[in-house]
């Protein structure tokens, strides 16, 4: 008999056909509630196995779920079914980014699983830059996990210095200056703009940002697409920079949260465009357990609706750049903060972070009037010869404490 996971949509409970009972035991049970608007407003999960979150089930978990007698063929089939479940759940929440390249069912598979498609056909190449990054990140993390086992990371986390208060730093900066608290980004390059700063010294830039009045720093750790690295995060932390640090990474696995904490991060980025509600909920709890803040990033109204239904979120980032097309429109911030969404954010006392497309004092004023209390800015200040003056130019005056 097939396992059925109930999914409620537009006020109705709809059965989502998943996999065999053995896989159901592995991933646990899921129930999602959605209001009439179609946005996910509540998420619940119960599981008997830690592997309930992960896209890629570990073979040991799968073998245990099959009674310890699974063949390699059984394991491959169950891993494939877990991936199919992940795709089905993501599609049901309006997530358009596929987490990994499509694959055919393993040889010998016979079951009910059929992948629903967004456009009626399977494309075997990434449909946009975010999907390309996500596919590569999944492979990269798999390699990194082999070199840095989770148990070793947990020990490193135990010996790591305490985290700094990322959310508190933003609130204090907003109160002190009357402007949105600045998260200044240490970024050498981007896929859309190429190299932003040839003579790139991450520590020097971070120290200049701090002198210029930044409340927090965002450090790009992706190497392939942004020319960053975790060594930059470690170097900035070791240099004595007091600003709390956001690890700017494409998180697709809980292992990355431990890794960021071990490397000196005080906060992590979670992108709603690539994470389901269940994953965001799980990663929020894990981040809190490790003392990390979590900036949950949205791009459109559907993602904002999903995120507002998840408990425990303090920071919501509105990215004015579409991570699919890379087109920038700062009016996106105002649009997402109007009406019911804005009311809920004020009621929950969330900090909204305006991201992308902010170059002038008028831009800062525009998003501040829309309701943001913090901004994340990279390109417009990192390209300046003097980042301190770049920050003053961005806000129209000196916001440093000196």
TrEMBL record:
Pfam families on file: IGPS
InterPro entries: Aldolase_TIM (IPR013785), Indole-3-glycerol_P_synth (IPR045186), Indole-3-glycerol_P_synth_dom (IPR013798), Indole-3-GlycerolPSynthase_CS (IPR001468), RibuloseP-bd_barrel (IPR011060)
Pathway given in the UniProt record: Amino-acid biosynthesis; L-tryptophan biosynthesis; L-tryptophan from chorismate: step 4/5
Catalyzed chemical reaction(s): 1-(2-carboxyphenylamino)-1-deoxy-D-ribulose 5-phosphate + H(+) = (1S,2R)-1-C-(indol-3-yl)glycerol 3-phosphate + CO2 + H2O
Organism for this UniProt entry: Brassica rapa subsp. trilocularis
Keywords, in A-Z order: Amino-acid biosynthesis, Aromatic amino acid biosynthesis, Decarboxylase, Lyase, Tryptophan biosynthesis
EC number(s) from the headed UniProt entry: 4.1.1.48
Domain spans labelled Indole-3-glycerol phosphate synthase: 130-392
Name of the protein this chain belongs to: indole-3-glycerol-phosphate synthase
């Amino acid at each position: 008999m097939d396992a059925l996971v109930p999914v409620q949509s537009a006020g109705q409970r709809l059965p989502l056909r998943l996999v065999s009972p053995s896989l159901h035991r592995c991933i646990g049970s899921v129930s999602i509630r959605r209001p009439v608007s179609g946005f996910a407003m509540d998420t619940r999960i119960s599981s008997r196995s830690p592997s309930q979150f992960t896209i890629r089930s570990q073979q040991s978990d799968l073998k245990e779920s099959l009674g310890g007698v699974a063949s390699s063929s059984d394991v491959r089939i169950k891993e494939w079914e877990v991936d199919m479940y992940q795709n089905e759940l993501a599609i049901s929440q309006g997530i358009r980014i596929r987490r990994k390249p499509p694959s055919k069912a393993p040889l010998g598979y016979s079951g009910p699983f059929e992948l629903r498609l967004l456009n009626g056909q399977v494309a075997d190449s990434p449909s946009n830059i975010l999907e390309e990054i996500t596919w590569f990140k999944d492979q990269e993390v798999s390699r990194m996990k082999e070199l840095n086992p989770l148990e070793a990371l947990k020990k490193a986390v135990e010996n790591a210095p305490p985290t700094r208060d990322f959310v508190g730093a933003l609130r204090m900066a907003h109160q002190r200056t009357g402007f949105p608290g600045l998260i200044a980004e240490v970024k050498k390059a981007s896929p859309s703009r190429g190299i932003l700063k040839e003579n790139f010294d991450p520590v020097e830039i971070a120290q200049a940002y701090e002198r210029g009045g930044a409340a927090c720093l965002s450090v790009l750790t992706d190497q392939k697409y942004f020319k960053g690295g975790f060594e930059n995060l470690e170097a900035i932390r070791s240099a004595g920079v007091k600003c709390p640090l956001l690890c700017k990474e494409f998180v697709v696995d809980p292992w990355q949260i431990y890794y960021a904490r071990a490397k000196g991060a005080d906060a992590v980025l979670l992108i709603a465009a690539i994470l389901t509600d269940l994953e965001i909920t799980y990663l929020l709890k894990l981040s809190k357990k490790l003392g990390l803040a979590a900036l949950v990033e949205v791009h459109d109204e559907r993602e904002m609706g999903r995120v507002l239904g998840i408990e425990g979120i303090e920071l919501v980032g509105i990215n004015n750049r579409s991570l699919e097309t890379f087109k920038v429109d700062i009016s996106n911030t105002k649009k997402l903060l109007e009406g019911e969404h804005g009311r809920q954010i004020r009621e929950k006392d969330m900090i909204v972070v305006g991201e992308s497309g902010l170059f002038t004092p008028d831009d800062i004023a525009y998003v501040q009037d829309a309701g943001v209390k913090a901004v994340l800015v990279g390109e417009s200040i990192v390209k300046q010869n003097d980042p301190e003056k770049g920050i003053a130019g961005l806000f129209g005056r000196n916001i440093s404490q000196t």
